[in-house]
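Thread: "does anyone have the structure for this chain?"

Original post by V.I.:
We have the sequence but no experimental structure in hand. Need at least a predicted one for the grant figures.
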Amino acid sequence: MHEGDHPDLLAQKDNKGRAAKAKQHHAPKGSAHDHDHDHDHDHDHRHDHHQPAKERSTAKALTFLLEDARDYAMPGIILLTLILSWQGAANRLLGFDVSLIGAALGALVIMKSTAIVTWQKRRITSGILVSIALVATVIVEDFRAAAIVALMMLFGEALENRTLRRTRRAIEGLLELAPEIALLKVGDAYREVPIESVQVGDIVLVKPGARVPVDGKVVDGFAALDQSSITGESMPVDKVEGDPVFTGTISMQGAIEVVAERVGSSTSLAQIIRIVREAQENKGEGQKAADRFATWFTPLVLVIAGIVWPLTGDVIRAVSVLVVACPCALVLATPTAVVASIGSAARQGVLVKGGMTIEGAGKANAIILDKTGTLTFGRPQVEEVAAFNGQSASADDVLLAAATAESRSEHPIARAIAAHATARGLNVPSTATFEQVPGMGVRATFNGRALVVGNRRALADLPKGAAAAAEEWLASREEQGFTALVVISDGTPLGGVAVCDTIRPEAAGFIQELKRTGFKQVMMLTGDNTRAARGVAARLGVDDFRAEVLPADKAAVVAELKAQGYQVAMIGDGVNDAPALATADVGIAMGVAGTDVAIEAADIALMSDDLTAVPGVFRLSRKAYGIIRQNIIVFALLINAVGMVFAARGDLTPIGAAVVHNVASVLVIINSARLINFKIGSARGKDSASSACGASGSGDGLRPCKSC
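Reply from O.Q.:
Generated one for you, tokens below.
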């Protein structure tokens, strides 16, 4: 740790010039480094800064190498004794078959590990079958067969361990994303400090090529960050002042100062690592069933072998039955697929909480989508301002009246109206009185005028003739998918404001992709009125929708579908939708990076808000579920059953039984390993509806966009 003499690496700039300078290279204040000099300096610093991470990576690689050497050492020794036995000279020199040494060593290793596991689990384990088989083979003095069986079992175990380490390495690799050193700002200089010493509120510098050490917000500078490790996004994301950043992301270009908001174990990266580790221990029903089956299957095999021996009079047949029937493939069938799936998803910005979630998502055949924040961006904006015929007011007058009435409201629609008025250059005053009317809108007074902005309920007290034009306009806009509001001044409807929550451009394609993925029921939930909901559902191709649904009622809709026999998945924001997410068989939260509640509420958490990743998650789960069934039915049960028949008939020697046993286990692991490189992202789902809100231009000059 040392006090650095780095000057401020961020060029001074005022707020107006920030955007213009955002893509310039930030040189130190008062310096005139040319490109080459900066490049060399940054390269050298980056090398020093990341040296601990490189050393850690080298140490981990060495650890894996040593673990491989340990696993393969005993099979190597046994193989050597077999070679010496076949050569014959050692046998003559020592006066006994050298393969006995290999058989004894192998048996001791297997029996020791079996004894430990049996004691820990307090039940008969599969290792007992092999241990008995080895002892029986030695007793009948078939030393080479015993040595070969031990060799095959230990070599197979070593191969399994190596493959499983490779699978888990994808998960443990997340640890490499966390930097050990941060550049802490102290006055006008920066000090290299251990990451553990950074506190919330501290400001750290992230240079080009360096990893962000904390979760926080940019307070100065510009950078293009590679966020793939957290959100799964493939392209760098530009970050400027006020934007959030996450631990472990890399600055591909530019330097930024970040104020720390989350450090240590509270960062998004730390949460990902914790959840993924916990997920590996979360067993699904399939794995629990396999474990239960293996528990009673082992004693059953002992009984079968005990029957085969006296019936055939051949102890070798009984030994072959014990070896081939060892249920290792069955025990590995589910956890290998689950670990591979979780690791693959985690590397792509998706947190899957265990085997139960994988199985649930694999079986899901109905999906409920919360419209706001899922099919839309959750950011309302004004789409149209209209002055009713017969009124002298202009569209700007209508907008100003609406913005004035809403000036003291914190509702998102009120903020959208205020923002649109400001963008039009209107000076919005504050009202003298203000009242929020639940289920209708707002009432306010300004300069003696009574202003009302609300839905069609606001027309209830008006004469029927006065409300006719407003009713017609509201109905038209609601059918097009808008949230339509009428603006009333002193009992006279001046005009209307149509607002829409911007629908994601990929939403329509996303719905079609869900159907192609195998969902029989796709339902949208929204708090909008029925007309608006019907318009959005029709344009997106949603099968069914429920309108005017309150957050508290969403869980009831989920329960209703479950009662109809569906396996239900629910996608929401993870906070307001927490009860519904918990009720669903599989709850999915989107865009949850940095959100504790959302991550904890969901079974599956997408760190980004990319809709196209959702079908990929279900494809991964369905593939994993299919692989689990293949592993259990084909590679575990079928091969075991056929092997036991051949062994009992005398067609399979102990050596052949060991080969069959290990082939089954290795096939399970290889089959599961296909999930490691599964790509969740979809090239589909990019098509959009012709217009997100479905409206055409009004010609009043107050439409901010042609497609909301």
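V.I.: this helps a lot. DSSP finds 23 helices and 23 strands in the chain.
O.Q.: and The radius of gyration is 34 Å.
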